[in-house]
Amino acid sequence: MKNEKKSQDLDPKWESFAQKAIEALEQGKFKKATKFVEKALGLVGDNIGPDQVVLAQILHDIAMDYAVSDSFAQAETLYIRSLEIWEKAVGDDHIGLTSVLDNLGSLYAVYDDVSKTTPYWERALAIRKDKLGDEHPDVDDNLGRLADIYKLQGEYPKAEEIFQQLQTKLEERLGPDHPDVAAGLNKLGGFYFFDKGDFADAEVYYKQALTSWEKALGHDHPEIIGVLKSLSLLYQVTGRSQEEKEAKERIDRIRALNK
Question: Which CATH class is domain 174-259?
Fold first, then answer.
């Protein structure tokens, strides 16, 4: 009821400014669109409610355009402003906030400092788990991106926990002999090999990936070449020349069969 009363008390001109902002955005006039949003917000004052989410969305869309054009400072400012409006309009834990949190985190990952990405993506994950449930695909996507950021920061235990969690969920959903499961095992192998330097565990996961792909696609499918290359390199690094030779010979044979 409180929001309904606030909406009734608002100057209706804010909607006109919102529409002008949308039109300016569509024309690529980002500064003009931003000014119209701020004029609308000036009329709304502290009475921001769900109806004003449109203003947050406009700023979010402008920020996305700035990000694409490498205008980091402008994008950052508008993402943060958009987030503030979302929070005032619908609260701190609304699912609508996650797009802004995702994109603000991505902005820092690409242009600034990945350590700034983590809190935004962690917050988005908490909201998604609460609103969508642990099994929702968006939760898995969020987890995967977080794991990659943890890996970049050298926080291997956190990354490892998530990678293992995602792999377990994938196998439960698809079964052990599915190409996507094989790809996940291959990624785990790469994590242990290249990031942790754990050759023993890397070999286990690479071989599991190979077996999974073989069962799903056959022994001579070209998709297998990637994991065979990884195994060949692992054998080279660990001084196992005969196994390295055999892996390379199998790669050549598969390539010949699939010409």
Answer: mainly alpha
Tell me which H or E stretch contains 198.
Answer: none
What is the pTM assigned to this prediction? Answer: 0.88
In angstroms, rounded to a whole number, what is the distance separating the alpha carbons of residues 119 and 229? 36
CB 96 within 8 A of CB 53: yes
Residue 8 is predicted with a pLDDT of 54
Q: 195 Cβ partners below 8 Å, 6+ apart?
A: 151, 156, 159
Token pair 């490892």 in the structure block, residue? 160
The residues spanned by each domain of the chain are 10-91, 92-153, 174-259
Architecture of domain 10-91: Alpha Horseshoe (1.25)
The DSSP output letter for 176 is S
Q: Tokens 């490498």 identify what position?
A: 70
User: Which residue is associated with the tokens 């834990």?
Assistant: 93
CATH number given to 92-153: 1.25.40
